[in-house]
Amino acid sequence: MSHPLRLFAPGPVEVPERIRLALGEPVYHHRSADFRSILADVRERLGRLWQAPGWEPLVLNCSGSGAMEGAVVNLMSRGEKAINVCAGKFGERWGHILRAYGCEVVELTLEWGRSVTPGEVLALLAKHPDVKAVYLTSADTSTGGEHPIEVLGPAIRAVSDALVVVDCICDFGGARDIRPIDWQIDAAVSCSQKCLLLPPGLGLATLGPRAIQRMQSADLGRFYFDWKLELVRQRDERLTAWTSAVNLIRGLQESLAMIEEEGLERVVERYARQAAAVGAAVRATGLDLFPELPTSALTAVRCGPELDGTRVVELARSKYRYQFVNGQDRLKGKIFRIGNMGVQHDADIIGAVHVLERVLADLGALRCRPGEAVAAAAARMHGVAEERSRVSRAS
Ligand SMILES: *Cc1c(COP(=O)(O)O)cnc(C)c1O
After folding, report:
1. Looking at the structure, do residues 42 and 129 belong to the same domain, yes or no?
2. pLDDT tens across 62-97, in order?
C-alpha cells in the first residue's frame, strides 16, 4: 500500500478534520436565516483577523486571482495609470489583469526573488505623479520572497494619493501579522487555500475607507465582480450578491475559529519557527534559499547548476510521498519549494526535512552527513522557541 501524499505545498494545504466536517454539513440555503448568521459571523471574524476596525471584508466566489481582478475593476477607471511591482509570478499577474482592462501599467520589474525598496517605488511615483494606484504583493509565493509592505505603505502615502492595493494571498491569516491601518494600505485580497486551511474556491478582500470611496466612481467594466453591489448585500443584508459558496463559507467559519483559538500571534510565531527550521536545514545540506527576504509561509530553495529541482520534487513524491513543489515558469527546475502552510506540527516539519535529506542523498547532492540537516532544523526550531519565550517573559 502506498502512503497517502503529505502536502508541504504553498497551497493548497491539508485541510484539518474539524474543517472537513464543517464542509461536509448539509447544504444551507443561501438566503436562509441559518446561512445569514454564518455569513455575518464570518465577516465579523474576518474583520478581526484583518486587524482593521471599520474596514469592510468581502467573501467572494472565486479563487485568489478573481479577488485580484475585483481589486482592479472596482478601484480603477478606464485608461488610468497604476504602478505594479513585479518580482515573481504573482506580481506579474497584477500587471496582466490591469492591462486586460486597458489600464496603463508602469511596471517596476525586479529580478525574481528580490524585495522592492521604498526608494524604488518613490522614484517611479516622482516620474509618474498621475498614478492612481500602486499594486503590491505581500509575499510572492512563486519565489518565497516577502516585500516590506509595512514601510512601503507609509512611504507611498507620504507623497501620493495613489491607493495601495496588496495581494496578501500567500500569508494572510498565518505567515504574517498584516496590519492594514498601521501599514497605510487601502485594500488587500486573499483566498481560501493558503494559510486559511480550506480547499480552493473562496476569494477574500478587505477595503479601507479610501478604497470604498474610490469604488463609487471607478468605471471599469464589471458585472459579476461588482463590489459596490457585493458590499451592500454583505454589509446590509447579510447575503452575497450571487449564490454563495455556502459549504466553503461554513468551512471558513470553522477555520477562522481555529485561528482565533490559537491566536494570530501564536500562529505567526509557529510559521516563523517552522520556516526558520526548514531554512536552517536547507543551509546545512549545502543549498541556499532563493529569495532576498524569505516569507515564513514557505521555503524556496535555489538548486545550483548540478541539481534539478524537478527531480527533487518528483522523487519526494514518488518515493517518500511528500508533496513539495517545483518552481513556476522561468524558475522551473531552478528552485523547489517546501511549504509549511497549514497547521503543521513541528515534528512534521522535521519529517519533511528528513525527506529532503534523503532525496538529496538519492540524487548524490547531499553536502552534509545524513542527519545533520535534520539536527540543524531541530536545533533552530528549539532555538527560535526559546528566544521567543525569553522575549515574552522579559516583556
Ligand atoms: C496562490 C496565489 C495567487 C493565486 O491564487 P489562485 O487561488 O490560484 O487564483 C495569487 N497570489 C499569490 C501571492 C498566491 O500565493
Report:
1. yes
2. 999 999 999 999 999 999 999 999 999 999 999 999
